[in-house]
Specification:
Elements (H helix, E strand, L loop, with lengths): L1 H27 L6 H43 L2 H17 L2 H8 L6 H25 L3 H16 L7 H9 L6 H16 L3 H4 L3 H20 L15 H31 L3 H43 L1 H16 L3 H13 L6 H25 L3 H16 L4 H14 L2 H17 L4 H5 L2 H44 L1
Length: 492
């Protein structure tokens, strides 16, 4: 365990260094930051290194094994209706206390925060059920997800433009650092138990968990008759210790249901050996403190810095804004804990055929492109739909052209890219820039998380297409070589 923690610390240090250096350079040059703010940011980068290390170690030793054991048992032993009820309840409970969702809900005053949070959570639960049903009945992922997004864009016709970006962002913040490893492992356990198409069915649940809230928030707006959203400032940052106490409580609220469900399963059915139970308990402790430390670091250090940099860039250096946003987005993806977890699972499931670093690089390129597009949209004030509709249309087309394994992987990549760093650093950065440019926060700033979700999907699908073409070329070359050898033998 000690060696594993040291390796995680090394990996986290390498991941956090690029964005730390970039922010320091910006803070000392074109976007001057107060010395106290800059020092606080550097200190919080240290918290992120420790937090990510503990969290990823906890995910490996607790969250993923719990999800696999529970998913596998439910799939083998339980009736489908029991699995559906379990997924619905767990999806709702995990999402309700998701810190990123709370942050987004606090930004909007046109809807009661708790009504917004519960609506989004029900969306996650319902579409997790849809994802499980897809695995059970062997429905094709690309067809089902295409139908879901067709419903989303059909709903757009009946809504005011002011609430569309918010609806898409609601789907992006639900897949946070706690829910992602558990949901992915739960799906992996079910897929493994079902047997056929195990690898292909191991991915895609995060994609379904992201699309459900979009439809539910749109439905909520329609029922309430809300025609536009209203931005609500969070009132400024709290002190370090109030934020620490808040996250100690919030993370416990999220982890306790998972631990309680696991205990019930252990007592009633699983009967895992004592040694494995001890390992899982220690892993849960690592997860609890790791994600708490991480969230405190991003809230205290990254949120105010993001807002300041965004305002300064837009006001004094608008020509630099697009390039800086692209670089920040690229580096930001390396720091998201959920990205690390997904990339590790992809490497494990594919037997290292697809490397962890390759997937992380694809997601990073996608997030960099997303923030670049956000900066362009801020400067041009082009409608959100002019960007997102063609992007999803291209995603749907590509999903029918690449190997099936890549489709679920791609949608999951979009889900994990919009974690705590995106919500509490990139979103305030875009909001700060929007304020400086006197734009409308609801139509020009919101939607950024949706961009960060769709761009990695596109990049991973393009990677899948390149992979497919490469395999075909390799097979063709091998066949040609074989023919040449046969010709030579016959000639002799």
């Amino acid at each position: 365990m000690k060696n594993a923690l040291l390796k995680k610390l090394k990996d986290s240090f390498i991941a956090i260094i690029p964005i730390t250096i970039i922010v320091i350079i910006l803070g000392l040059t074109i976007s001057p930051l107060p010395v106290k703010t800059l020092l606080t940011f550097v200190g919080c980068c240290g918290l992120l290194i420790v937090g990510i290390s503990l969290f990823t170690l906890g995910a490996d030793t607790a969250m993923i094994p719990i999800g696999q054991h529970m998913g596998g048992y439910l799939s083998k032993k339980s009736k489908p209706w029991l699995m559906i009820v379990f997924c619905l309840i767990l999806g709702i409970i995990i999402t309700i206390a998701e810190p990123d969702l709370m942050f987004l809900a606090e930004q909007v005053s046109s809807i009661n925060s708790w009504v917004f949070i519960i609506t989004v959570s029900v969306g996650v639960g319902l579409f997790l059920v849809l994802g499980i049903l897809r695995i059970i009945f062997k429905w094709k992922f690309n067809i089902v997800i295409t139908i879901c997004y067709a419903l989303v864009f059909l709903s757009v016709i009946f809504l005011d433009q002011g609430i569309i970006p918010l609806s898409f962002d609601a789907g992006s913040v639900t897949t946070g650092p706690i829910s992602v490893p558990f949901i992915m492992a739960f799906g992996l356990g079910i897929a493994a138990a079902r047997g056929n198409n195990g690898k292909e069915d191991s991915f895609g649940l995060i994609g379904f968990a992201s699309v459900g809230p979009i439809l539910m928030v749109m439905f909520l707006m329609w029922v309430l008759g809300v025609n536009t959203g209203e931005y609500h400032s969070d009132g400024g940052a709290l002190g370090f210790f109030p934020i620490l106490l808040t996250y100690l409580k919030d993370v416990a609220i999220v982890l306790l249901p998972i631990a309680a469900f696991f205990i019930l399963f252990q007592l009633a059915a699983l009967r895992l050996p004592k040694r494995e139970i001890v390992k899982i308990v220690i892993g849960l402790i690592y997860t609890y403190f790791g994600i708490t430390i991480f969230l405190v670091g991003v809230k205290v250090g990254f949120l105010p810095v993001g807002r300041m940099i965004g305002e300064t860039l837009a006001e004094f250096h608008p020509n630099w804004m697009v390039a800086v946003c692209a670089i920040i987005g690229f580096c930001m993806a390396f720091v998201e804990p959920a990205v690390q977890v997904l990339a590790k699972q992809i490497e494990d499931v594919t037997g290292s055929v697809i490397k962890k670093r390759t997937i992380i690089l694809c997601i990073a390129i996608g997030v960099g492109l997303a923030l670049m597009l956000c900066a362009i949209r801020l400067r041009t004030q082009i409608s959100f739909l002019w960007f997102v509709v063609p992007s999803f249309a291209l995603v749907i087309i590509l999903s029918f052209c690449v190997p099936k394994l890549f489709v679920g992987m791609a949608y999951d990549s979009g889900g994990v890219a919009t974690g705590s760093i995106a919500t509490t650093f990139a979103l305030p950065l875009v909001m700060g820039a929007c304020n400086a440019l006197h734009g409308d926060l609801m139509t020009d700033a919101f939607g950024m998380l949706a961009f960060c979700a769709v761009a990695p999907i596109l990049v991973v699908l393009v990677f899948g297409l390149i992979y497919k073409l490469g395999i075909k070329k390799q097979t063709k070359d091998e066949n040609l070589d074989g023919l040449k050898r046969i010709d030579i033998i016959e000639y002799d």
